[in-house]
Amino acid sequence: MEMTEQELNRKVEKSIQKKFRKELFSKFAKAIRTYELIKEGDCIAVCISGGKDSMLMAKLFQEIKRHNKIAFEVKFLVMDPGYHSANRKMIEENARKLKIPITIFESDIFESVYHVEKSPCYLCARMRRGHLYHYAQEIGCNKIALGHHYDDVIETILMGMLYGGQVQTMMPKLHSVNFEGMELIRPMYLVREEDIKAWRDYNQLHFLQCACKFTDTCASCNKEENQSKRLEIKELIQTLKKTNPFVESNIFKSVENVNLDTVVSYKQKGEKHHFLDMYDG
Fold first, then answer.
1. Domain layout of the chain by residue ranges
2. Greatest C-alpha distance within the chain
3. Quick one: pLDDT at residue 219?
4. CATH architecture of the domain with range 5-151+166-222
5. Which one of 111, 132, 208, 228 has the minimum C-beta count within 10 Å?
6. From CA 106, how far away is CA 191, in angstroms rounded?
7. How far is 22 from 6, CA to CA, in rounded Å?
8. What are φ and ψ of residue 150, in 5° steps?
């Protein structure tokens, strides 16, 4: 017999409280404590794209609000950058089933980047973030929360090294450069992707895989042809893991243990520093 929406939501919430507490809720709460992501009086725009990560993040925020050790507010924000109607409907239905009170606002970002040939995905992501900051600020929020997880972090570190020739990471929080007083936070920072998938599958939930309107023609989204750099990095990590089971945590820790005495040069606040500057001093 098919579950009612109320029964489904109860099962989903119970799975976060019990079955997946250690893997999901505890790591979510740990990231918030470790990186001081939430402070008294915050109003946080929880940004939902419709995928598994942001939907779970919304449920985790609802759960942490129940404990309410810190007085803060959340607003669940969905930006429609020009989704196909079926994708938008799927987001709305999942939000209803999971009792997430979303606010949807429109933008025309997909149309804006449609004819951009060089790095349309990068431009789209930047524009989406700008729109999210702007709308979140308008509705009284001082922070936006994005659903990037642990695996996104370690993949970003490797991608920067192998394809960007630089050592950098995806930060757990950032001050906005263009929107004064706004911050970006990533409370899923310590949550593993495999645990998010396990939670999704246990509850038989179905979310958007890729909401891009141009997935069919976008090489960077085409998983079948293996052209995604991120997919390449995922596969590399899995290969390395076969001989080194600690490879993922070592990649993550590498940007927490940077020894500046053994770095040829580095940038800080836009200014470049070189080891020769201090070598004879």
1. 5-151+166-222
2. 77
3. 38
4. 3-Layer(aba) Sandwich (3.40)
5. 111
6. 30
7. 24
8. -55, -45
Would you tell me how many other CB atoms lie within 10 Å of the CB of residue 107? 18
Distance CA(27)–CA(47), nearest Å, equals 19
Classify residue 58 as left (phi > 0), alpha (psi -120 to 50) or beta. Answer: alpha
Q: What is the pLDDT of residues 107-166, one digit of tens each?
A: 665 555 555 555 556 556 767 788 899 999 999 999 999 999 999 999 999 999 999 999
Q: What is the 3-state secondary structure (H, E, C) of the chain?
A: CCCCHHHHHHHHHHHHHCCCHHHHHHHHHHHHHHCCCCCCCCEEEEECCCCHHHHHHHHHHHHHHHHCCCCCEEEEEEEECCCCHHHHHHHHHHHHHCCCCEEEEECCHHHHHCCCCCCHHHHHHHHHHHHHHHHHHHCCCCEEECCCCHHHHHHHHHHHHHHHCCCCCCCCEEECCCCCCCEEECCCCCCCHHHHHHHHHHCCCCCCCCCCCCCCCCHHHCCCCCCCHHHHHHHHHHHHHHHCCCHHHHHHHHCCCCCHHHCCEEEECCEEEEHHHHHCC
CA distance 105 to 155: 31
The whole-model pTM stands at: 0.89
Task: Quickly count: other Cβ atoms within 10 Å of residue 149's Cβ.
Answer: 25
Per-residue pLDDT of 63-93, as tens digits, reads 999 987 789 999 999 988 777 788 889 999 9
